[in-house]
Amino acid sequence: MADTSSARAQILGGIRKALGSVEGSEDARKRLAVHPRNLVPARAQLQHADQVELFTRMATEVAATVERLPGLSDVPRAVAEYLAGLNLPAEIRVAPDADLDAIPWDQRPTLTVSKGRARDSDGASVTGAFAGVAETGSLMLLSGTERPTTLNFLPDTHIVVLKRSQVVGTMEDAWDRLRGLGVAGTMPRTVNFITGPSRTGDIEMRIELGAHGPRRLHILLVED
Amino acid sequence: MEPTTHAFPENARKALSDERLQKVLAIAPAGFVNRRKQAADRLPEFEALRDQGRDLKNHVLANLDTYLEAFESKVTEQGGHVHWCRTDQEARDAILGICRAANAKTVTKGKSMVSEEIGINDYLEANGLTPIETDLGEYIIQLRHEPPSHIIAPAFHLSKKDVEGTFRQAHTDLPPDRVLDDPKVLIAEARTVLRRKFQQADVGITGANLMIAETGSTVIVTNEGNGDLTQILPRVHVVIASIEKIVPTLEDAALVLRLLARSATGQEASAYTTFSTGPRRPGDLDGPEEFHVVLLDNGRSALLGTEFQEVLRCIRCGACMNHCPVYGAVGGHAYGWVYPGPIGSVIQPALLGVKEAGHLPNASTFCGRCEAVCPMRIPLPKMMRHWREKEFEEGLQPAAMRKGLGLWAWFARRPALYHAATRMAIRALGALGRGKGRFAALPLAQGWTKHRDMPAPEGKTFQQMWAEQKGKR
Amino acid sequence: MAEKRPAPRVGLFVTCLVDLFRPTVGFAAVKLLEDAGCTVEVPSAQTCCGQPAFNSGDRKTAQELARNTIAAFEGFDYVVVPSGSCGGQIKKHYPELLAEDPAWAARAQHLSARTYELVSFLADVLGVTDTGARYDGTITYHDSCSGLRELGVKEQPRRLLASVEGLTLNELPGAEVCCGFGGTFCVKYPDVSNRMVEAKTADIKGTQADTLLAGDMGCLLNMAGKLKREGSAIRVRHVAEVLAGVTDTPPIGEKG
Ligand code: SF4
User: Fold this and answer.
1) C130-244 maps to CATH 3.40.50.11810
2) What digits encode the pLDDT tens for the residues B12-43?
3) Which residues contact B57 (CB under 8 A, 6 or more apart)?
4) Residue of B nearest to A119 (CA)
5) Predicted ipTM of the assembly
6) Closest CA–CA distance from residue B21 to any residue of chain C (Å)
7) Could you name the domain of life of the organism this protein comes from (chain A) (predicted)?
8) pLDDT in tens, B208-258
9) Given A59, A223, B162, C221, which is the most exposed site by the fewest CB atoms within 10 A?
C-alpha cells in the first residue's frame, strides 16, 4: 500500500495553519467523550406504548407491513401465512441468531427453514433486530457472527422479528442502548437502519419498490 | 471528465432548446420542492435543527484537524486503513493501488459525487478494470457515457423512453419483443443485470454521506440498497470521502440525518442508512475483509479561513438545485462538470478555478431561494458574490460590462451631475418611447430587447418633478 | 389617551428605476406616507444604492455609494424604499459592506435599523390597515425575491390590497419564484432569463387577472416587457400605485 503520510502531514498542517491551531482542541476531544445530544424532536418522546403505536404508523407509511404477535411461538404460523398470502414459496433463510432460537419452526413442517448468510437463491429471510425507532419507523440491525448482513439485502422478502421492548423513541435512544452493551467504543461492522423496503425514484421521479434490496419488508412485532 | 463549464452560455442555450429536457424540467423539480416542504412542515423543529446543523458543522470546521485524527485512529484501531490524498490524482492512484493489491477485475460502485469529482471510473477503465455503477440512475448514465445531471437524481434528465433505449442497446441479450415501457420492468431488468455484477465484484467503492470521528464509522444513505450490496459482497470495501464530511459523534450524525433525507427527497428517513466500521469481524459470516477510507482534500482545506469556508458545511442534499430557477431552466449538464446548481456555482470555481468556472457564480439572479432552503444555511448567493469579487479583482469580467458599470458609478458618486445627466437621458428616451409606451429594440440593450420589450420611461425623473413641485408646495 | 406623537420624519429613497422610469411610484409612495401621517423628504444627494456594483463584485464602488447614501439620509426617523431589492441592499448589505470600516460601520448599522421597504413600513411600523383606495379589477401579485427573502415582505401587501375597494386578488402560482430579472443577469444571460420570465408570464396569464402587481421596478419592467412582447393586455403596475389610488398614468409599458 502506498504511503500517504506526507499527504497526511500536509493536509493536517494546512488545516492547522488555516485554523491557527497547534495542538488540536480540548473542546473537540470533550465532545467526543461526552457525545452530547443535539435537539431531539418531540415527536417520539412518548410513553412506551405510544412509541410502539408511532413505530407502527411510521413503518406502515413507508410501505413496510407490521403484524402484531402475542409471542415468539406465533412466528412460524405468521411467516407461513404471510408467504402463502403472497403466493411465495414456503422457504426461508433464517439468521443463526440465538435470539431467534426460541422460535419453534418445527411446528410448521411445511416451512423449509435453513440458517446462515443469504445466498443468491434465497427468496425470503427472517432476522431479528436490535431496535425499532419510533420517530421514523426504522429498524436497527447490527451485524455479528450470528447476524449476517446479506440477509437484510439479498432476498426479495425480508421478515424481521422485533420485540415490543426493542422499540425506542429515537436514533439517540438506540445509540444509548448500543453503548449500554458495554462494547464501549466498538461499533459492530455494520449497523443498518432500515426504513421500509428498497425503492428508487430514478426513473421519471416515480417511486417504485424493490430496486436492489427487498421489495417487501414485513415486521413481526412480538409482545415480550 | 473534461469540464465544459467555461461554455455555460452555449451549454445553456443547448439545454433550452432541448425539448425533452425542458419537459422533464417543467415537472421534476416541483416534485422535489413539494415533498421537501411537506416533510419540513411536518417536523416543528425543522428550522431549529437547521440552526443546529449549521452550528455543528461550523464547530467541525473549526476543529477539523482533531476530528480527522480521531477518525483515523478509530479506523485503524478497527483494522481499517486511511489513505490521505491531497489531489484527485492521489486519490485515483490510491484506489487503483488498492484494486491492484486485491487483484481486482470488476469493481462495483455506490453513488458518490466525490468519485465523479476524481473521475475514478475512466481511470480504472483505462487501467484495465471494469467499474460498474450500481445506483440505478448512475448505472443508466454510465451506460450512456453521460455525467450526472443532479447530485441525488443522476438520471433526472431522462425519460423512461430514454432508459428503455439505453437498456436495449447495452443489454444485448434482451429479447427485442420484451415490453419495457413501465419503470417497474426497467428496474427489474437493471436489478437482474446488476445482481450478477455484485456477485462478480472484487472491490466495492462507496462514498460517504458522513464520517464519524467518535467511532471511525462511515455512513451512507440510499434508497435502493445498492450501496449495501456494494460493500458487503466484495472482498474489499473502499470508501471515498472528502474531509469535510466528518462529524464528531453518533448523536451528531442523527442531527445531520434528520436534515438530509427531508431536504433531499422529502423523506423522513431514507430506506437505508448504514454505518460501516472497519472490516468484517472474526467469525462474521459476511462483510468485506478489507476496509479502506480514501480521504480526499482536493482544495478543500485551502477554503478554511477564507470567505468560502462556510460552503464546507454542505451535505450534498440537492435542495438548492431543486429550488433554483436557473437550474430549473437549464438542468444540470449546462454547468459543465460534476456539481450543478447553486452549490456547483460556489464550489466549481474553487475546484476548477475562476477562469474555467467564472460563469456560474454570475449566472444567478441572487433570488435567494437556495439559501432559504439549504439545511446547513449556507449563504450561497453571498459566496457567489465573493466569486464575482474575485473575478472583478482579476479583471476577468467582460470589458463592456465593466465600462458601463464604471461610468454609472462615476456619475452616481456625484449626485448633482448624476441628476442632471439622468434628467437629460430620460427626457430623450421618454420622447422616443412615448408613441408606444415601450421599445421593441434599443441600441445597447439587445440583451434585453431580444426577448422582451423595454417599457419607456415617463419622460421626467422623479427628482426633477419633485424639485418642480416643491416650488409649488 | 394616547399622546399625539409628532409626525415621523421619513426620508424617501426613490431608487434609480423609479427615479428614471416611473416617477409615478415615487409620488404614490409620498402620498401613502403622508396619508399615514408622515412628513416626507427626498434628499437630493441620493443617487444609486450601489447594488449593481455590489453584485458585480465591485466592492469598493459599492462601499463608496453606500457611504453616499448613508450621509444623504442621516437624521431621519425612518428611511423608506419602494423596492425590496434596494431596501435589502441598505438594510442587509450595508452593515456587512462597511463592517470593517471603523468610521462607517456604526452609521451603516444605524441606517439599516431605520430603513424599511414601503409596504412593510406602512403595515408593520405605521399599522396602516386601509389605504382608502379603489381599484376595479382582478389583480395577481408577484413576490419579488429580495423583498420576500431578505425583508420578509409577503403578507403585508396582501393585507393592504384586501382593503382596496373593488379589487379581487387571484393568487399567482409560483409567486415566490424569481421572474428572471436579476439586474445584470438578464442581459448577461438573456436566454436563461427569458426562459424564467416566460414561465412567469405563463403563470400570470393562467390566473385570469387583468392586472399584475409587484413591489419592485426591476421585476415589473421585466415582466411588463415580456407580457407586452407577447401581446398580452394585462396591465402592470407597482403595488404602491394601486394602494395609493394613483392609477391615472398609463400602466408600465403602455402609451399615454
Ligand atoms: S448547498 Fe445546502 S442545499 Fe445545496 S446541496 Fe449543499 S447542503 Fe444541500
Assistant:
1) yes
2) 999 999 998 999 898 888 899 999 999 999 99
3) B244, B247, B312, B313, B376
4) B199
5) 0.97
6) 13
7) Bacteria
8) 999 999 999 999 999 999 999 999 999 999 999 999 999 999 999 999 999
9) A223
